Amino acid sequence: MSIADNIKSLKKETGEINVALLAVSKTKPAADLQQAYDAGQRLFGENTVQELVEKQEQLPKDIEWHLIGHLQTNKVKYIAPFISMIQSVDSIKLLQEINKHAAKNNRVIDCLLQIYIADEETKFGLGFDEAIELLRSEEYAALKNVRIRGLMGIATNTDAEKQIKEEYYELKTFFDGIKVSFFRKQESFDTLSMGMSADYKVAIEQGSNMVRLGSTIFGGRVVKHWKNN
Ligand SMILES: *Cc1c(COP(=O)(O)O)cnc(C)c1O
């Protein structure tokens, strides 16, 4: 199937159940993104600042760009003028830096806290306790130019469906608890980003309302072993 066909069928499948579809276009050329755009796709996700900035310059300006990969504080300034959502917030330091650059651009930047749920050695993401600590902190309370819209999580890369299901179930339960405890009056806390090509159906069953799909839309990627992401 073509990229356009993939977009059309996935938009239908997710749209019917009010799940947002983020097209993860990392490593793919701008021409591929343009095909998805022409088929109606407007939400795109990249995992590096460099690719994000390059593609943002080349492609239509009504695209909503999401960053889904680890963000270094010294790179926030490059995306602050235009980014729609940063899904990979994993420290108060980073959130403070985003706030600073959002203020410089007279913006409020939407963010998700990335929560560590996988049973794998990965460097990024807040533990449940750390996320609570961040939300309780005075440092967070002082930030006026960031808005936390919800949570993002990446499940273990495994064929064991039961494990993936449990990880997403835990994240959904945590999301509900956080909403009640910290965002009871904020309707804008509404996004639970979980699910990739291999596991998005399980994620949706467990309560995801945003899936991040790359290979299902654009085909497989060449794995670059010399690069982290
Ligand atoms: C690459 C990536 C995806 C999409 O992966 P696919 O398996 O190609 O769907 C989703 N989320 C994150 C954080 C990613 O880095």
From TrEMBL:
Entry's Gene Ontology molecular function annotations: pyridoxal phosphate binding
**Domain of life of the native organism:** Bacteria
Q: Note whether Protein transport occurs among the keywords.
A: no
Its cofactor is: pyridoxal 5'-phosphate
Residues modified as N6-(pyridoxal phosphate)lysine:
K26
- Signal sequence, start to end: none
* Keywords, ordered alphabetically: Pyridoxal phosphate
> In this entry, which stretches build a coiled coil?
none
> Could you tell me which residue ranges the Alanine racemase N-terminal domain spans?
3-221
Describe the task this protein carries out: Pyridoxal 5'-phosphate (PLP)-binding protein, which is involved in PLP homeostasis.
Family, according to the entry, reads as follows:
Belongs to the pyridoxal phosphate-binding protein YggS/PROSC family.
What name does this protein carry? Answer: Pyridoxal phosphate homeostasis protein
Q: Which organism is it from?
A: Mucilaginibacter terrigena
